[in-house]
Amino acid sequence: MLDSVEAIKDFVIRGKRKEAVEEASKAIAAGADAAVIMKEGLIGAMSVVGQKFSSGEFFLPQMMIAARAMTEVIPVIKPYLVGEAAAKRGKAVIGTVQGDFHDIGKNIVKMMLEGAGYEVVDLGVDVTAEKFVDAVRRESPDFLLMSALITLTMESARRTIGAVDAAGLRGNVRIGVGGAPLTQKFADEIGADFYGADAYACVETCNRLVH
Amino acid sequence: MLIVAERINASRRAIRAALESLDDAAIQREAEAQDRAGAHYIDVNGGTFPGREAELLTWLVDIVQAVTDKPLCLDSPDPAALAAALPKIRSRPPMINSINLERERYERILPLAVEHRAKLVALCQGEAIPATSSVQKVELASTLVERLVGAGIAIDDIYVDPLVFPLGTDPHSARATIDAIAVIMERFPGVHTICGLTNVSHGLPARKLVNRTFLVAAMSRGMDAAILDPTDRELVAALHAARAVSGKDEYCMELISAFREGVLGG
Q1: Which domain holds residue A32?
Q2: Which residue of A26, A43, A140, A163 is 20 to 30 Å from B201, comparing CA positions?
Q3: Predicted confidence (pLDDT) per residue in B64-97, tens digit
Q4: CATH code of the domain covering residue B155
């Protein structure tokens, strides 16, 4: 069983989706615990991938194929997850701010969060403050995460935070911001709860805050 | 082949620091180095400080013009910043980087380009999510060229940028851009195509190698302008060779000159 979980983890890290799915199917058929596959195999793998990406050992395409492998294993084990193991660690609403169409960073954070066991509601790119506010109201997430990649659109992040505050929804949600031109200083200035220097840092911060 | 020199960009850490402290010497060193390296236009981008773009772009124009006679490429999506900086421009014609089909940006930047008779980088970007296929890119390019020419911009002043997205997230992204370049150059005689190179290699190893390979591939299909770092010797060497290989260098005279000047390396 452990060997099998190690193998799944290794296949996911290397982005071998076919092998990862096969190994997971075999493990489930042999009566393996889906919760262990999820926690040790998938979440464990994505944590390793996140660290390797963050440190520069892994390049972007390696991150992409690992996440793709993970995404394909999930349906195999999901029907066997019960009780606490089926529960999500937390919920995040994520999107790229209004006027901005960059989605690579946002997608990486989304995949990392899913890999870490979160439910993620992805609003896509060019998301208006109103859309963010509606989603917070509808989904009651633990986190609202915004990505901004160009200077002009950093102001959209400020506007969105203002709109969430004005709607009286701030008490229920922690707001995180990230993207190349952003800084901790800017995050503080616009009243965000945290700044994610990269995808891994963002997920780590969510993990810390969700408990 | 028109070279727009990219180094004075606020997204680079050194430039951001220079903007923060209004360090004119640091900016001017970059301008002079790029001028010497053969830039035709010097791009100036002052945008990472919200609310200060007009002030910083104007400052950049003033201090860069103090050390070079090369014309400038004003790099901003902000019509207010462009409107503030354009009247300061000395070497003509200026280039505006950039307009696209987002309604407000289009309507506010077009009159500035007409008034200042600027060359104009036109991004294949509409209100919707970015165009990733060559068909979508060509469609946006066609709309842009037809509308801009209809509004009185000379076709020779239009530099269509079909946009390049990272290969790291889509292995066919560069191919789509290059195919679009070929169609655009054929469909609109006299128009130019331009790309920034660095996005293609985002998240990959050996970025400079990937960037210059993309440059050569795009030039071979007709791209005749690029936003790049002219102080990157290997890149410029590849550019000279690619011009010759694409049949754009009569009897390879420019390749020979470049060799004599020592810019081709060994």
Answers
A1: 2-86
A2: A43
A3: 999 999 999 999 999 999 999 999 999 999 999 9
A4: 3.20.20.20
